[in-house]
Amino acid sequence: MWIQKTISIPPQRRGYHLITDNVVRQIPEIKSIRVGLFHLFIQHTSASLTINENADPDVRTDFETAMNHAVPESLPYIHTIEGPDDMPAHVKASMLGASVSIPISQGKLALGTWQGIYLCEHRDAATGRTLVVTIQGDAA
């Protein structure tokens, strides 16, 4: 069985946002999959997706601090037409990636106890984000 669906995430402030529950709510079809693969792809070049700790909110702050240190806005970027946060956002998005894949087991995402899906928003004034979900699996 194959399922593909486009979902939306409302605009978020710059930072790292857990979106696992939001995504799962928009894809009730997961419950019908006994074993499979869930692929999530973001259709943007200035935001990214990752999987990491979902418990301590300090992790989100530390992500932002570390990425701003690794990719400062103060570099002499040439691509600046959309503002000083645009090119650093592209670099950060490429570093983290545009997609994540998660196993599905017995109708649920098989994330670890402390894992969650993050929308990594790298722009100061972002728009809503569009994600494509593709599920492949055997029906329950």
What would your notes on this structure say?
This protein has 140 residues and is of the alpha+beta class. The protein has one domain: YjbQ-like (Jelly Rolls), CATH 2.60.120. The chain has three helices and eight strands; from the N terminus they run ββαββααββββ. It has helices spanning 20-26, 58-70, 86-96, and strands spanning 2-9, 15-18, 33-42, 47-53, 99-105, 108-109, 115-121, 129-139.
Topology at a glance:
Blueprint: E1 2-9, E2 15-18, H1 20-26, E3 33-42, E4 47-53, H2 58-70, H3 86-96, E5 99-105, E6 108-109, E7 115-121, E8 129-139
Antiparallel strand pairs: 1-8, 2-7, 3-5, 3-8, 4-7, 5-6
Q: Based on helices, strands and strand pairing, what is the structural class?
A: alpha+beta
Instruction: Give the SSE order as H and E letters.
Output: EEHEEHHEEEE
CATH class: Mainly Beta
Got a strand count?
8
> Percent of residues in helical segments?
10-25%
